[in-house]
Amino acid sequence: MSTSFSKIAVLAVLSSAVALTTGCATKRATSEVVVAPLGIPGGQAGYNGAVIVDNSSAVVTGAENLQAVVYFAFDSSEITSQAANVLNQHASLLSSNPNAGVVIAGHTDERGSREYNMALGERRAQAARNYLAAQGVAVNNVRVISYGEERPAATGTTEEAYAQNRRAELSY
Asked: Is residue 143 within 8 Å of 52, Cβ to Cβ?
């Protein structure tokens, strides 16, 4: 009887060890969210595009005179007439410099889940990219990135702060 008790005890210990090391069969796989590939290099306060785009000094100087931010309504990626006016100026600069590149970073306010905000930031950047493409800009020269809610332009929980954070920024 002692031998069968030993065998049962050994089997119980082994099965417990197997269960602990392999985990449960119903365990869900984890998901990953990619945030801003390449990020901001070297601890810079703002993204200047130097890693992804390489423009002439004439293009960079021309871009300095343009408004670099377009704003969006709550939970929207629709290009407004005001945003279209800003993007038209960028389309003109990019069309006159066909080798120039631009990075469009999409941002959101803090409302919504992190995953939702990353997707909305991506949609906003893509909407700006699509608008530029419709104006004749080569899409190969336009890169998009989403920061979601991670890089707010304004802090606070007021509608004014939220409005400043719902944006897409263009960098040369």
From this structure: yes
Q: In terms of DSSP bridges, do strands 167-171 and 102-107 run parallel, antiparallel, or are they unpaired?
A: antiparallel
Q: Are 167 and 68 in contact (CB under 8 A)?
A: no
CA angle at residue 64 from 143 to 139, to 5 degrees?
A: 20
- Cβ proximity of 128 and 80 under 8 Å: no
Pick from 34, 1, 47: which is nearest to 146 by CA? Answer: 34
| Sheet of 102-107, strands arranged across | 69-71, 167-171, 102-107, 142-148
Question: pTM for the complete prediction?
Answer: 0.70
pLDDT in tens, 55-88: 999 999 999 999 999 999 999 999 999 999 999 9
pLDDT in tens, 86-108: 999 999 999 999 999 999 999 99
56 vs 17: CA distance, rounded Å: 63
Question: How far apart are the C-alpha atoms of 9 and 62, rounded to whole Å?
Answer: 79
